[in-house]
Q: What sequence folds into this?
């Protein structure tokens, strides 16, 4: 039986780590019945299969186009007794006019005996913080309160699903409930083998994790220290934070402890806003995944929140920037 797994993210739930690891070990995995196609030498993920649909930059586009590429995968792999794993967090993008049509996607892949969906999720406030840090890389991001407001009012943030029931409803319109697997990201990352082991277990592949070649020590695309990045962003507005600013902030704040871009009040606000929807999500999955939860581990006691940055910190950053400028 041929089985196709669509790993759809969500964003900032270890997708790049899974993609890098599966790509680097594709020959080893293929011998054990798991096919991870290589499509674009620039990217380990399969973003090119939907790059046109979700309007990704040209660097992600495949030379043959997404439709022809999907048809090629269908023709090449759907007749064997194997599992094919396609991975892109862009599958879960929520923007109107820039999201994947799953029904059309399944038509192009209709040679497979089974198509299932794998999706890692995490508490919304943690997801939002990671989104903020990710969009800080190429540009000056909206300030955290604006993102919190957007998420609560619309159930989305920067074109991504924050209300996971909306995502589940969208998937359920195309896939049967038994072909949808949600994974508790925070719990999975703490278990032996972490996210890689979780993905392989769902794919039904028996592999000793220690036999896999690790990429970037098993942590691709790590987020920077949250409060340091926020402070640098604030100083650099309306431009993206420069290396000298980031270094000045880091030297002053000494980012060796956990930090949180959101305030304590914003976290409570986010948790309250999505509590009912998250409970509905758990109830909707209970018959198919009774073990599924949405874990939210407690933060360390010494965690630095955004509101913990004092005037003394800001003055210290200013002095460090002045030293850089005039030394």
A:
């Amino acid at each position: 039986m041929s089985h196709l797994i669509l790993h759809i993210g969500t964003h900032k739930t270890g997708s790049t780590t899974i993609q890098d690891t599966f790509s680097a070990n594709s020959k080893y995995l293929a011998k054990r019945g798991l096919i991870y196609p290589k499509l674009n030498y620039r990217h380990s993920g399969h973003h090119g299969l939907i790059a046109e649909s979700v309007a990704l930059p040209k660097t992600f586009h495949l030379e043959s186009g997404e439709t022809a590429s999907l048809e090629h995968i269908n023709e090449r792999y759907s007749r064997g007794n194997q599992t094919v794993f396609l991975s892109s967090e862009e599958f879960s993008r929520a923007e109107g006019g820039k999201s994947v049509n799953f029904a059309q996607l399944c038509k192009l892949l209709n040679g497979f005996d089974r198509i299932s969906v794998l999706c890692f999720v995490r508490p919304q406030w943690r997801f939002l913080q990671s989104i903020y840090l990710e969009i800080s890389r190429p540009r000056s991001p909206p300030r955290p309160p604006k993102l919190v407001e957007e998420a609560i009012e619309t159930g989305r943030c920067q074109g991504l699903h924050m209300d996971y029931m909306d995502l589940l409803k969208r998937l359920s319109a195309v896939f049967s409930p038994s072909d949808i697997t949600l994974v508790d990201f925070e719990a999975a990352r703490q278990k032996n083998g972490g996210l890689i082991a979780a993905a392989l277990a769902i794919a039904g592949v028996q592999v000793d994790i220690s036999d896999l070649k690790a990429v970037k020590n098993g942590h691709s695309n790590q987020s920077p220290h949250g409060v340091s990045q926020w402070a640098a962003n604030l100083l650099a507005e309306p431009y993206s934070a420069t290396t000298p600013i980031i270094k000045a902030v880091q030297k002053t704040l000494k980012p060796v402890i956990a930090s949180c871009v959101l305030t304590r009040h914003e976290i409570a606000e986010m948790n309250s806003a999505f509590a009912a929807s998250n409970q509905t999500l758990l109830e909707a999955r209970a018959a198919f995944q009774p073990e599924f939860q949405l874990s939210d581990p407690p933060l360390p006691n010494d965690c630095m929140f955004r509101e913990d940055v004092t005037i003394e910190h800001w003055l210290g950053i200013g002095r460090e920037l002045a030293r850089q400028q005039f030394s």
